[in-house]
Amino acid sequence: MKNTARVLLWIVGAFLLAACATTSLQSAWYDTSYRGGPFRKILVVGVGANLTDRRVFEDIFAQQLNTAGTQGIPGYQFLPDDARQNEPGWNEGVTRSGADGLLLVRVLGVDTKTQVVTTMVPGPIYFGPYGRPWGPQMIAVPEVTQYDVATVETNLYDVKTKRVVWSGTTQTFNPSSIAKETPGFAKIIIGQLAARGLIAGAK
Fold first, then answer.
1. Buried/exposed 52-75: b ≥16 CB within 10 Å, e otherwise
2. More confident residue, 195 or 121
3. What is the DSSP string of 151-170?
4. 192 vs 148: which has the higher pLDDT
5. What is the pLDDT at residue 85?
6. Within the chain, where are the H helices?
7. What phi-psi label fits residue 131: left (phi over 0), alpha (psi between -120 and 50 degrees) or beta?
8. Cβ distance 154 to 168 under 8 Å?
9. d(CA 5, CA 9)
10. pLDDT at position 123, please?
11. CA 62 to CA 70: how far, in whole Å?
12. CA distances, 79 to each of 109, 174, 176 (Å)
């Protein structure tokens, strides 16, 4: 019975970790005075991480935008690393892209969290005089797990006015890789933009 309880505890712990591997929207803001209509062409730019991860992210997010009915452009096609380091190079790259919207995504930080789950399991049984059992019937067994929480800020700019028209903060629990997490992240952001009429609906 003791072994069964421990197996159940491990299963619950694994389930909790799996459930944490999701992205959720924590806060969002949009410019209620914006009257420019939906953006037709959005340049997707990832900030931070390494070159490979940035390109993977920009490719996947742009692809998700295309699927949703809005043209998405990976930022690296017009903004190489050197152009991202200075304003003239940045402005030139954005202009050459022909985009009317710029989606800027950056990781604010990754925090490691600790979770402690206590489960009651049968304890050892001792036998006293005359063979009568005594001692604790149940004991508390703590299981400690750690997981990461990545906080990401996303801003959508109107290229023409250089104003932020939508901003949101998300958290991804227990992220594994850019390739795995980006589709779910993109789905949340794109859904928010569509709900505000900032991008066209799926065709």
1. ebbbbbbbbbbbbbeebebbbbbb
2. 195
3. EEEEEEEETTTTEEEEEEEE
4. 192
5. 83
6. 2-20, 51-68, 87-97, 178-195
7. left
8. yes
9. 6
10. 64
11. 9
12. 24, 30, 27
Distance CA 93, CA 114 (A): 43
Q: How far apart are CA 144 and CA 118, in angstroms?
A: 9
Residue whose structure tokens are 């920009």: 58
Quote the pTM value: 0.74
Place 137 in a pLDDT band, splitting at 50, 70 and 90. Answer: low
- Nearest C-alpha neighbor of 46 from the set 68, 22, 82, 74: 74
pLDDT confidence tier of residue 11, bands split at 50, 70 and 90: very low
What are the backbone dihedrals phi and psi of residue 10, each rounded to the nearest 5 degrees, phi first? -65, -40
Rounded distance, CA 21 to CA 86, Å?
Answer: 36
How much is the mean pLDDT over the chain? 82
192, two tokens: 């928010």
Per-residue DSSP letter, 112: E
Condensed to tens digits (0 to 9), the pLDDT of residues 72-100 reads 999 999 998 888 888 999 999 999 999 99
Q: Which two tokens stand for residue 92?
A: 């030139």
Burial group, residue 90, by CB count within 10 angstroms (0-12, 13-18, 19+): middle
> Which pair of structure tokens corresponds to residue 53?
């991860």
Distance from C-alpha of 45 to C-alpha of 106, rounded to nearest angstrom: 9
- To which residue do tokens 């309880």 refer? 5
